[in-house]
Write a structure and sequence with these properties.
mainly alpha, 775 residues, 3% strand, two-stranded antiparallel ribbon, 31 helices, 3-stranded antiparallel sheet, elongated
Length: 775
């Protein structure tokens, strides 16, 4: 960068930058680029902290609001901001030039560090990441000194977790449209490249001596490389906002180590503050984990040494293999564990769940640039056993946390049912259950043969060194490991299966009853189904959503029973206290009860057995009726011609038409029955005109006597439908159309109407498959 003769003093440069800050965003980026290109590094070194605070915000200043700049906005500033802040933009070039100065260090606010880090430093510990960055001066707060590149990445990372962004509660539906996640994706591709043999070269700076009570002074000649620092900074601010020890409280020893009363208050708030990430925060963490998986999976296979030659891995491959276990594993586990314990019980938990499933499925992120390669139906190769072993608590402990959340979830919600289905489907991928069982066997010492009920803390002797190390590194000291495939976990899974059963029966019992369709000739004038609202089948869900809900619950139950080698028929159904022993469900009854309620075509009426006097409740049916799992259809089961006169019917016509029908049925009863029982076309047409009130193939929903049942299944002529005002309106409209359009009189209209009746009967006879009553 060449120095310009126009800017002779720092005050002039500072004023020009302040003037550019007030410009519209697009113009601001262009002017800032010109100022950076036309100024010297010495002048710009004092401008950088204020420039970063203006971009990313500081305190109450909102900055440039990078979370709201999108491509779809009219007159969008997206392109200008993205170019200015990109990894090869003018600002990053300035940062890299300033990084070459070994004595140029910037102070970063100590209060902006994550709560766990601040607490460790205040207690006298020094995280390895902050070696050579913290300076201590007597009893005052420590000072954090950073190079130019680290200062930029600290500001970029802390913006996402700042109070200003958290209060906005924005929800990025499409992250490719917003400038901040696009910048993150570009930084990851640049600083952690997937298809290159080396990381980008950064300018090297010589570290300055640091006064720290926890370490010896570092020689000034030691070089500090910035390679691989990007993911460390992102993990520090995005994954380290909470620790698993945050609820422990403050011990007197901790209080004595504080510097002043204000520090005591800060320590108290540090312990009891619990940071809850936003939805966008979780989305970016998942994007970050995906890229890390792609980056790690590009490492060459580890060479196998032989007695004749020694193969060495490249430094980049060694860095890729060590990235997860040494840099990210502990922080990712704490982030997920806190989310599983504290996230609200709503549908937004799916973001946290998918982040967990992303981490435990590295086999899906192998070929960069082609999206997630592995499908849920693919087989998990044995080569992934090492990853499963080294991250075993991610599969077991977090699964137990998910089971605890499931107890408090309403599985009648489509989103909740889908989350249970997703977890069960992922854990039952081909060969994954076998790998999990094999890994768990390795977690116990060989002296302990039976591990069904074993479990323990990090000091339990039966646990192997691998599991004890993971518990020590990732979990609280009082953590007690529970065997994933032991009896305790199986009992929890059985409770989840009972929840699935209850949700299924609740949905099936509360679905709206379908309207009984009219049979016979009366259905010709029934147009009421055209005006029915059938959009909602259960609550706010449509019928298609209810089908998805039932499908997710069925598949989740099947996958969970397969994972833990359970039988659905062994599921016990709790009975009410008032049930007698003779009414309790036996094993076979429970099996049939579970299967019938879990099927999509399960009836909504209680379980009954047919007798001479009609259906009678079985013990299962009584249980279903008493607990509201099923119910009888409430409706009129007698002669439909003797129903009370409705408001939409003409009372005079009802009485007149009933007498006419009764007279015809009495005079020609034998002939009507003979026609109805014929097995030819005439017989099928007679079944349309003389349809019985109760179809021969339909089972009555309520118990009826044999005499009543026989009467309802007797064919007859019914003309009551002609007394409906709706039918009269249709007939009147048809007459008006034929009268005005074709000039038909009353006689011609009656002839056309009779022809329509005959054609309708013929069509129904040819297409109907209804059974014929036999003696």
């Amino acid at each position: 960068m060449a120095a310009s003769t126009n800017f002779s003093s720092p005050s002039t440069i500072w004023s020009r930058f302040q003037l550019a800050y007030g410009r519209p965003l697009n113009q601001r980026c262009l002017e800032l680029e010109q100022l950076i290109n036309n100024s010297s590094n010495k002048d710009l070194s004092s401008i950088l902290p204020g420039l970063l605070e203006n971009i990313f915000g500081s305190g109450t200043e909102p900055g440039w609001s990078l979370d709201t700049i999108t491509k779809s906005q009219p007159h969008s500033d997206f392109d200008g901001v993205f170019r200015f802040l990109g990894p090869e933009g003018p600002l990053m070039k300035l940062v890299c030039h300033l990084q070459t100065d070994p004595y140029l260090m910037y102070e970063f606010p100590f209060a902006s560090l994550p709560n766990p880090t601040r607490h460790m430093v205040e207690e006298g510990s020094l995280p390895m990441f902050y070696v050579n960055k913290l300076q201590f001066q007597s009893y005052s707060k420590p000072i954090l000194m950073l190079g130019a590149f680290e200062l930029y990445m600290f500001h970029f990372s802390v913006t996402l977790v700042s109070k200003q962004w958290q209060m906005k509660s924005l929800n990025w539906n499409n992250m490719t449209e917003v400038v901040y996640p696009c910048l993150l994706d570009k930084y990851l591709d640049y600083f952690l490249p997937l298809n290159k043999k080396s990381l980008p070269k950064f300018p090297q700076s010589i570290s300055t001596p640091v006064r720290s009570p926890m370490m010896q002074q570092t020689p000034t000649s030691q070089k500090h490389s910035l390679e691989g620092v990007t993911e460390k900074i992102l993990a520090e601010f995005w994954l380290n906002q909470n620790t698993l020890d945050i609820e422990k409280g403050i011990s007197p020893q901790n209080l004595n180590n504080s510097w002043s009363s204000s520090h005591v208050s800060d320590s108290f708030m540090t312990f009891y503050e619990s940071y809850m990430p936003s939805n966008n925060h979780v989305r970016l963490v998942r994007l970050f984990l995906k890229h890390i998986h792609y980056f790690v999976n590009t490492a060459e296979p580890e060479p196998v040494n032989s007695p004749y030659q020694t193969a060495e891995s490249s430094p980049l491959d060694e860095f890729k293999r060590s990235l997860l276990p040494t840099v990210l594993q502990k922080k990712i586990y704490g982030f997920l564990k806190h989310g599983f314990e504290r996230w609200p019980l709503d549908s937004s938990f799916r973001l946290m769940l998918e982040t967990w499933l992303t981490y435990i499925q590295p086999w899906r992120y192998i070929e960069p640039g082609q999206g997630a390669q592995g499908k849920d139906s693919d087989k998990v190769n044995d080569t992934w056993f090492a990853f499963i072993r080294d991250n075993f608590l991610f599969y077991t402990a977090l699964f137990h946390e998910f089971l605890q959340r499931t107890k408090r979830m309403h599985l009648t919600s489509l989103t909740n049912a889908y989350m249970v289905f997703r977890v069960a489907k992922v854990l039952t991928l081909t060969n994954l259950p076998q790998l999990l069982r094999e890994a768990e066997k390795m977690m116990y010492n060989s002296a302990y043969k039976h591990i069904q009920d074993l479990g323990g803390s990090y000091i339990a002797p039966e646990l192997s060194a691998i599991l004890r190390f993971q518990i020590t590194e990732l979990e609280r000291p009082e953590y007690h490991y529970v065997n994933m495939f032991g009896r305790e976990t199986e009992a929890e899974v059985q409770n989840v299966l009972q929840q699935i059963l209850s949700a299924k029966t609740m949905v099936s019992s509360q679905q709206p009853e379908k309207k009984v369709e009219k049979s016979g000739f009366a259905s010709f004038f029934d147009f009421s189904t055209l005006f029915e609202d059938s959009a909602k089948a259960y609550g706010d869900m449509s019928s298609s959503e209810v089908k998805k809900l039932v499908l997710h619950l069925d598949q989740a139950a099947s996958n969970l029973s397969y994972l833990f080698s359970l039988k659905l028929s062994d599921l016990t159904v709790p009975l009410s206290p008032g049930f007698d022993h003779m009414h309790s469900l036996q094993a076979g009854d429970q099996s049939s009860f579970f299967n019938t309620t879990m099927s999509n075509s399960a009836p909504r009426t209680p379980d009954c057995e047919l007798t001479r006097n009609g259906p009678h409740l079985t013990p299962i049916g009584r249980y279903q009726l008493m607990n509201g799992l099923r119910k009888f259809e409430i409706g009129y089961n007698g002669d439909p011609d003797l129903q009370p006169i409705r408001s939409f019917e003409n009372s005079t016509l009802v009485r007149v038409l009933y007498r006419m029908s009764a007279c015809v049925n009495k005079m020609f009863q034998k002939e009507i029955c003979n026609l109805y029982q014929r097995d030819d076309l005439i017989g099928r047409m007679s079944q349309v005109y003389f349809a019985a009130p109760l179809s021969p193939s339909k089972i009555p929903s309520s118990p009826l006597s044999a005499e009543t049942l026989r009467s309802l299944r007797t064919p007859r002529l019914s003309l009551r439908f002609l007394a409906s005002y709706q039918t009269l309106l249709y007939l009147g409209l048809m007459y008006a159309i034929f009268r005005l359009g074709f000039g038909f009189g009353p006689v011609g209209y009656m002839v056309v109407l009779l022809l329509c009746v005959l054609v309708y009967g013929l069509i129904r006879a040819l297409t109907s498959t209804e059974e014929v009553i036999t003696n």
